[in-house]
Amino acid sequence: MNIRTRESLAGYLSLLPTFLALAAIVFYPMVNTFIHSFTKWNGATSEWIGLRNYSFIFNNGELWTLLRNNIIFVLSIPGILLLSMIVSVLLFEEVRGWKFFRSLYYIPTILSSVVVGMLMKMMFAQSGVVNQFLHAIGLSDGTLEWLARVPTAFLVLIFCFYWQTLGQGVLIFLSGLSSISNEIFESANIDGAGWWQRLMRITLPSLVPTIIYFTVTNAIYCFIGLFPLVYSVTQGGPGRETTPIDYMIYIKAFQSPGQLGYSSALSIVLFVIVLLVSWAQIRLANRFEE
Amino acid sequence: MNWKLKGISLLLLSSMAVLSACGDGNNGGNSKSSAGISSPEASPSAGESGQQKKVKLVFWNTSYPTIDQNNKTKKKEEFYIYKAIKRYEEAHPGVTVDIQDVPDGTNAITKFQTAGIAGNGPDVTNLWSGNYTMDLKAFIQPLNSYLQKSDIDSMTGWNAVTENFADEGTIYGIPDGSDGTIGILYNKKMFADAGVDPEQNYPKNANEFLEMLKKLKASGVTPVGTGEDGDFVYFLDYWFAQMVGTPGINDIVNGKMDFHNDKLVEVMKSYLQLYTDGNVKTDQHETQFFNGKVAMIFGGFNLVNDARKALGDNLGMFKIPNYSEDALVKNGGIGGTGADFVVSKSSEHPEEAVKFILFLLSKEEQVERFKDGYGKLLNIQNVDATEFTQDPLIIRQQQWASEDSTIFWPDNIYPSELSDYISSLNALVIKSQLDTSDFLSKLDQKRNEILAQK
User: Fold this and answer.
1) Domain range spanning residue B171?
2) Which residues of chain B have a CB within 8 Å of the CB of A149?
3) Is the same domain home to B158 and B281?
4) pTM to 2 decimal places
5) ipTM above threshold 0.85
6) Which residues are in the ABC transmembrane type-1 domain (chain A) (predicted)?
7) Which whole-number Å values give the CA distances from B192 to B29, B197, B274, B285, B316, in the listed order?
8) Which residues, at least 6 apart from B172, have a Cβ–Cβ distance to it below 8 Å?
9) Which of A42, A242, A259 to mutate to test the interface with B (most CBs of B within 10 A)?
10) Is 70 exceeded by the pLDDT of residue B237?
11) pLDDT tens per residue, range B279-337
């Protein structure tokens, strides 16, 4: 065996453990889920039923309500994007107290979603601090049922999403801002550009890749990461009005007998949706970048 | 082979060993052996007849309290279940019970299901009875061969754990005590101030009940406290079951009758009127009742002790009024055996597991746990509650529990997905965000979907 072959072999063998781990942890469950999506499966026995699960998903009307709920969260992304950018620019400009605020904004990010959810559930309960505060300043009679009504339940969930994402967003944008060369800013200063011009002509265009990254990752999160928040705050209610697809996958898998096959099919549908959304976003972003 | 290749080969082999160890879930069941639960010495195949057989039972505790919210310094050994296990281990040398606390309710069901799929479930655990248990029968040991006729004859509630709710058939669990019968707990003083005596002038139907609430409201109090989902499983289910009878509930489940029928549409109107008339508060209803902020709540035995501590002699109890004089079932309530003990299919010691469960459910142990404040009544045949309590409301609860008019929890009869759906939609109904007729139609639609997927 010559040295080149030995080196290639060593390289492939080095990669093999990682591939084996990926195969066991990622690819095997994916393939398994795909196969089970064509079955009626209760966890112990499965029966091949072809496309029946998919037919149910697209015909029972529930998917469109679930998708609507996911899309409401996706539509809230520009808000947190803007907020993260404003805060990060302020921190980057080192406004007074920036070190304190940097820590303050980051703290919610390190909390688990369930902790955030439980906290918000208590705060927005009928006798929670939010209602007490609104009552104290004369804005309500103190009995607003935030989580029992559809628009306000969504508002609470979006508030949780914002609160938890802001720190992460600021961190991402700060790193994006740090990567912009100081020389550009200095040149702009010499040319007489003001703060606003620097922001609009240098900072924001330089941040396009960061904006794309933030938008794509959060769009994916809005499809596959909402479960812990929804589970701990609204449990998908009232009714199924705040139930996103990932929460329905849980309901079908663990609260419905023999529906693990259906749940697998719903997972595959979600996988395809996320794939399409990400692909569309990246295509659009590339065009925008050009 | 040079040192580099040797190193890589070693790394590869160790990676494969690690992956194979965590790859096959079915090994989970066998892992008990390696954990010493069933040691070679303990195995009957070891053939050491002179040696004491050692058995370790894993018990997932979903229901016995092991934390006292008011006294965090209380040691585990001071809780009933630890004392009971100690008694059992002393009486059965060689058997040890490894108790592990897991979340209760639907979380317990989820955990048991995932463990069942992986093949590493516990020997014993406690689940909700009826369809919640039957949904998991692929992972539960049928128990008929481990039970004596005398065991079955001594306890009540077997329908809740037998396939198809039949009197005889495959038994998947052992009924765990009784929840009594859901009635109305009320604040005597508030009622007296409003000039209402519910026990002397018991409302004969829904209209009289609504009139009673009107009088309470006129006296300046909030008449009713309910959960955020409108206490569907405690209250609305009872009026449903009264009007269609228990066979009717089965017909609804099987698709032979619809939720959307004249009788239930009528029930929904009266039910919604409770809310639209402003009689009900849904914010922390139990606390509000204990603090004298609402005049009544729907509840059974599980609330009597706390309510007694809060209200003392001011606490009263009466049955939920019949919806109508034409009801098929009258003067009853919802209740019975809402939970059971099961033995998982992964258990290597089902016989010992059943013995342990029967010990926990012996009359002596049920009385002991009752005295410890555990929220269940006894499911022993012909039990006399005066033997272990002086509280007249608890004595009455134990009597109610054995009456024929107590209807087994319909939410344990509906498919579990349907129960969850009803509760979530009911929250919209009581806030007038969903029309009652649409509500019933949606339930039919969901029921049909579930049947179609069977």
Assistant:
1) 55-179+337-383
2) 431, 433
3) no
4) 0.82
5) no
6) 66-281
7) 61, 7, 21, 21, 11
8) B133, B134, B137, B140, B141, B142, B143, B161, B162, B163, B340, B342
9) A42
10) yes
11) 998 888 999 999 999 999 999 898 998 999 999 999 999 999 999 988 898 899 999 89
φ/ψ of B79, rounded to 5, equals -80, 150
Which of B428, B445, B446, B447 to mutate to test binding with chain A, by most A CBs within 10 Å of its CB? B428
Is position B29 within any domain? Answer: no
Q: What is the number of domains present in chain A?
A: 1
Rounded to 10°, the helix B416-430/B262-276 angle is 50
Tokens of A74: 């996706």
Please state, in angstroms and as integers, the Cα–Cα distance from residue B19 to each residue in A18, A25, B7, B118, following that order: 11, 9, 18, 16
* CATH number for the domain harbouring residue A57: 1.10.3720.10
* Alpha-carbon distance B195 to nearest alpha carbon in chain A (angstroms): 29
- CB burial readout B358-380, b (16+ within 10 A) else e: bbbbbbebbbbbbeeebbbbbbb
Tell me the per-residue pLDDT of A239-265, one tens digit each, with 9 for 90 and over: 888 999 999 999 999 888 889 999 999
> Is the distance from CB of B132 to CB of B381 less than 8 angstroms?
no
Q: How many domains does the structure of chain B reveal?
A: 2
Q: Can you read off the two tokens belonging to residue A117? A: 């959810």
Q: Is B215 found in the same domain as B173? A: no
Enumerate the residues of chain B whose CB falls inside 8 A of the CB of residue A60: 449
> Positive or negative CA dihedral for A67, A72, A73, A77?
positive
The domain containing residue A74 runs over which residues? 39-289
Tokens 């409401």, located at residue: A72
Instruction: Judge contact between B146 and B354, C-beta under 8 A.
Output: yes
CA dist B123 and B56 (Å) reads 9
| Residue B171 phi, psi (nearest 5) | -100, 125
Contact A99, A154 (CB under 8 A): no
